Amino acid sequence: MGWASCARAAAALLEIVIASAAHAQLAGHGGPVRALAVSADGNSLLSGSFDTSAIRWSLKFDAASEVLRYHADAVNAVAFLKDGRMITTGTDARIAVWTAGRQQPDQLLEGHTGPVVALAVSPDGSTLASASWDHSVRLWSLADGASRAFEGHAQNVNGVAFAPDGMSLVSVGYDGALCIWRLPEGRPETVALPAPLNTVVIAPDGEIVAGGADGMLRVLTTDGEPAGEVAAGPSPIVALALSDDGVLIAAAGIAGTVAIIERKSRSVLRTLVGPGFAVWSVVFLHDAATLVTGGTDGKIRRWNVHSGEPVDSNSFGTSADPLAAYAGDHGADVFRACVACHTLSAKDAQRAGPTLAGLFGRKIASLPGYRFSDALKTMDIVWTPETVAKLFEVGPNAYTPGTKMPEQRIGSAEDRRALTDFLARATSQ
């Protein structure tokens, strides 16, 4: 059925959804938000998720502008080019270059043999760097797609960044190695650090900051000499971001907190504490006062960097409640856990999951224009009130083995019936 992006459909979850509404700014992904990027003009946000999709969001209207579907597995990294084009890549090892508004990529970059987990665009916008678990870094010409492989890591390469002058590239890996590649020749200088490295950023003055699995930030000079370290937290650092001016660093931890660090003084100014889910991605908006985070719960949140408090979504657009017309309907209340990712009408802009318009009577994985997992395409299920109820009674893993839908169940038969009755009314219009 491709309910790949329903969050947790259970009546009890409604209370959680309502309680966290002030923190959940943008909802549309059905899995952890692994990557974030902000456009050069500051009007758009691009997110990539374990649900295999990327979403371009309007920061003006607080809504999804388009959903990009091409990848067969998790989208691990995203980037904007200066001209507004977008780049996505992931576990399927493919890199896709997109023009806004088009349903298919303009350009495909293939060469990696393992998951691609990080991207960096050169300062002049002509070259893309990619880091992969095939132990290599690749440089790609965005003009013709030609690539060069740089090999120097003994294990997974997790992060990559260009120096401000574009004359060198830095990569970090699980092997604890930080490699400085001098361009254009690509001669590596390797620095061994005492912990596996997950991410790296480079400040406008060339200073290198690497985040480790031991919760430490390690700062190095442009030549790779040690220049300080900061204990960001007790858990592994999985994402880093720099403010445009290079003054602040955001270090996201697997435990769900984000440390805001003043780079020059090497001091933690404050720690942002969310709902407890791992934070997989962080990015500063160009105002340097707002941080955006992506979490395991599939939500994208905004934070005031100076106060450490979440930014009320009401100050960013006026998204209408899509279920306002169903106030008081118990089935709609159960469905509310899914509404962030699925529309009820084919007239509405598509979200991360397929529209449910005309659901009943439709064969699983048959909706045109949506990229379903291969496992669903081989199944012989037709969606009816009974099959939808069964899906949530036993859970997706048991009912649709091989699906990428998060495991979830609705334990109450009354709630399952209320949901299917609601869907019968709301999706037949």
Automatic annotation (TrEMBL):
The record's Pfam families line, in alphabetical order, gives: Cytochrom_C, WD40
Q: What is this protein called?
A: C-type cytochrome
Keywords for this entry? Electron transport, Heme, Iron, Metal-binding, Signal, Transport, WD repeat
What stretches of residues are WD repeats? 26-60, 68-98, 109-150, 150-191, 272-313
Cytochrome c domain span: 326-427
What CDD domains does the entry give?
WD40
> SMART domains given for it?
WD40
Highest taxon of the lineage? Bacteria
UniProt KW Cytoplasm keyword: no
- Signal peptide range in chain numbering: 1-24
Keyword Heme among UniProt keywords: yes
